[in-house]
Amino acid sequence: MKHNRIGFKLGLAILSVFLIVLLSLGFVIERMFSSFYYGEKEQETEELALHFTAMAEAGDSSADRMMLSFAEFSEVSIFNIARDGSTKLHSGLHDAADRSFIRPQETAAIFNGERVNFLYTDPDGGRYFVSGQPIAGQTGIQSALYVMSSTASMEQSLDAVRRILLLAGIGAFMLALGFTWFIARILSRPLVQMQHATRKIAAGELETRLSLRRSDEIGSLAGAINDLAADLQRYRDTRQEFLANISHELRTPITYLQGYAKVVRSGLYENEDEKNLYLEIIGQEAHRLQQLVDDLFELAKMEEGKIPLKLDTVDFAQIAAQAVRKQELAVKAKGLQLLADIPEQAVMLSGDGKRLEQITLNLLENAVRYTEQGEIRVTVREENERVQFIVIDTGIGIPEEELPYIFERFYRVEKSRSRQYGGTGLGLSIVRQLVDLHGGQIDITSKPGAGTRCEVTFYRKLQ
Ligand code: ADP
Q1: CA 149 – CA 106 distance, rounded (Å)
Q2: What confidence score (pLDDT) does residue 420 get?
Q3: How far does residue 280's CA lie from ligand 1's centre (Å)?
Q4: Atom of ligand 1 nearest to the CA of 429
Q5: Whose CA is nearest to atom 16 of ligand 1?
Q6: What is the DSSP track for 372-395?
Q7: Are the beta carbons of 215 and 257 closer than 8 angstroms?
């Protein structure tokens, strides 16, 4: 039951509701039967009393005898009480000496011409319906006739009804118990499965998946858990890969730095040109290290959510033009063509100039890095409240199935790309974060072998 606590609670709730309904229904049915039986008995007793009265009032000589045999036949007791309180006639099982049910005020009412009906419990616990009626003679009311009808047979019938009700109730409860157990299991099983799965995922078994195919909320929750596990798995894998790459990336320039520094320090070069070449390599490798460390630092800040923007009203056209200028050398070195369509006039935008430049530079660097031949087109355009920066290259492109992941930290298309082209797999995730911080949007479309199109849209919020 411990593992199935939700099922237990659910079952308990359903059973409690069922019990409440069952008990109130049983109570109502029992009340209905009781009042029906009592009503019938009361009416029957009163009608019998009317018959006796009619017999007595007929006044012929055989009246008493008829009354006695009718009383015996009807299984009732009769007491005919004279005005002075004496018993004129008695018949039936009820003890003639017990007259405690004959109370003065009721007798007085009967001698006033009224009828009385009441329920009477004798000293032995026997219950009777009593109907008292006046017997009229020629000179007014002669006597009071009491007819007592025992409720014993009626109680027996009622007891039988109660037994049937109890049995039906127990049967229904047992049925409900089974049904509830079944329902609770069906409802709670997927939850228990999800609990086990999430515990496994939390313990690091990220391959765990739920196979619940349902179209309701539980199904979508299971789907969300599966997505979460897949994301975590990818995150762990890329992170491990990134750490392996990062240590490799760090080790390579450090080895170069150590090696060439040693060569220069020991004078193991033949002329000044050779020495300058070695110093150049040292400079390049130091720069590469710097870039890597910068990216890592940026990433660390991002993970802490600490990238404050210095918001200003800036000229985005100028920022983009400057980024293009910075890339001109690299573009030329690769024999590519750079076509820039940037407005001459200022394109004002509210943002952090340094960060906006970082976005444009990063996208341009990627375009140059992943393009071997052809051209790179850079466009800045403004349209009402929108400012767009578009970079289109004719490079190696990105396969469609990889596109959803390229903004993830450490993600690189083909694991060898970064090393071959010199990236860290952090550029686009940094770009996306910065675009988000500016309230903008970035879309990348690509075709392997044909090229890539990056489009950044900012929404103007000029003061
Ligand atoms: P990196 O520093 O490795 O370039 P990014 O986060 O900038 O990392 O990009 C992620 C991956 O997306 C890159 O490793 C590269 O494979 C791919 N990519 C990004 N831009 C382009 C592009 N313009 N053309 C082709 N592939 C690209």
Answers
A1: 18
A2: 65
A3: 27
A4: 6
A5: 413
A6: SSSEEEEEEEEETTEEEEEEEE-S
A7: no
| pLDDT value, residue 4 | 62
Architecture of the CATH domain 217-303: Orthogonal Bundle (1.10)
Q: Are 264 and 229 in contact (CB under 8 A)?
A: no
Give residue 425 CA to ligand 1 midpoint distance, Å.
7
Cβ of 428 closer than 6 Å to ligand 1, yes or no, is: yes
Q: Is the CB of 423 under 6 A from ligand 1?
A: yes
Domain 5-156 fold is Beta-Lactamase (3.30.450)
Residues in the chain: 463
The reply to whether ligand 1 has any atom less than 6 angstroms from the CB of 245 is no
The residue to mutate among 331, 428, 454, having the most atoms of ligand 1 within 8 angstroms of its beta carbon, is 428
Position 149 scores a pLDDT of 92
What pLDDT, on a 0 to 100 scale, did the predictor assign at position 422? 67
pLDDT mean values, one per 10 residues, the chain (463 residues): 68 89 93 92 92 84 84 89 88 81 89 91 87 88 91 90 93 91 85 91 92 87 93 84 74 87 91 91 86 78 75 95 94 95 95 93 95 96 94 96 86 68 78 90 96 96 50
Cβ proximity of 88 and 78 under 8 Å: no
What is the spatial distance between Cα 232 and Cα 236, in angstroms, rounded to a whole number? 6
pLDDT at residue 408 in the model:
82
* CATH fold of the domain at 312-459: Heat Shock Protein 90 (3.30.565)
CATH 3.30.450.20 in the chain, residue ranges: 5-156
* Span from the CA of 184 to the centroid of ligand 1 (angstroms): 51
